[in-house]
Every structure is written in C-alpha cells, then in structure tokens.
Amino acid sequence: MKEKELELVQKTWNALNLIWFAMFFSVLAYTILGLLLKGYVGFSFGEGTLAKIRTLFYILSLGTITYSVYARKSYLKKAAQEKSLEDALEVYKIAMIVSLGIAEFIGVFGFLLLLMGDRFYGFPLIITAGLTMLYHRPRRSEILSLKGSK
C-alpha cells in the first residue's frame, strides 16, 4: 500500500473512531440522565398505555437491530466493489454512520421509556443500543480488506 493510501486509511480510521466514540458515549449519557432524572421527569400514562408504548418500542428496536445489520452488510458489500480506495472508504464511512445512527435510535427508545417512568424496561433498551454499537464499531481489518487498498 502506498504512503498516500495509508494516510487516507488512517484519516478514515481516526474519523470513524471519533464518530463511534461520540455516539457510544451519548448512549452512556442517556443512562446517566435516566438515573439522575429519576423521579423528576415523568409523563402520566396509565399502565395500559405505557405497556402499549413499551411493546411498540421493543418491536421497533428488534426491527431496528435487524435493519442495522442488513444495512451495514449491504454497504460493506458495495464498498468492496468500489474501484478506488477513496470511493470504498466513503462507502465504508456511510455504512458506519448509518449503522451507528440506527443503533442509537434504540437508545432513544430506552431513554423515552425512562422519562415515562418505566425504568425496568428502559435500561435494557439502552444496554442493547450500546451492545449494538459495539457490534457495529469500525474495524481496521475491514478497512484494509477493501478492494482499493490491496
């Protein structure tokens, strides 16, 4: 790999890690805020309404996880087919940002449940968001295996 290509790969790697770090720690911020706001913020919903919202958020979260895995694989396949390293890295960046953004959506569902006073069911969604982000973190091996970087 040429010096210029190595520099481009390193810049992409650094940018993606910064994005991943920021998004992952925003999910941790949801957890901390959920703990700090305990008892201060809440919406008054009946148990039946809260149960319906909870069910909806869990179904949406399952769909979101499934879609994030599919979207990431689809983008990675497209990145591998690009002819130039620059184009492959751009598609890889899109894959990471989309999959991490989708994963953060799960954390938002959990945070909303926390605000609604549903702590028992809110935290598992936030934890799921964090685990999904760990799964979707950028990988140097993926970047180096792109067609243009060989």
Which strand-content bin applies to the residues? Answer: under 5%
Shape: elongated
Strand and helix order: HHHHH
What average pLDDT do the residues reach? 86
State the domain count: 1
Radius of gyration from CA coordinates? 18 Å
Helix content: over 70%
| Unreliably modeled segments | none
Q: Can you summarize the main beta sheet?
A: none
Number of helices: 5
Instruction: Tell me the structural class.
Output: mainly alpha
SS elements, strand count: 0
How far is the N terminus from the C terminus?
A: 7 Å
Short characterization:
The protein is mainly α. Helices cover 81% and strands 0% of the residues. The chain has one domain (3-149).
Please write out the topology.
Layout: H1 3-36, H2 47-81, H3 85-115, H4 119-135, H5 140-144
Model description:
With 150 residues, the protein is mostly helical. It has one domain (3-149). Helix content is 81%, strand content 0%. The chain has 5 helices and no strands. The radius of gyration is 18 Å and the shape is elongated.
Short key terms for the protein model shown above:
5 helices; 150 residues; 81% helix; mainly alpha; elongated
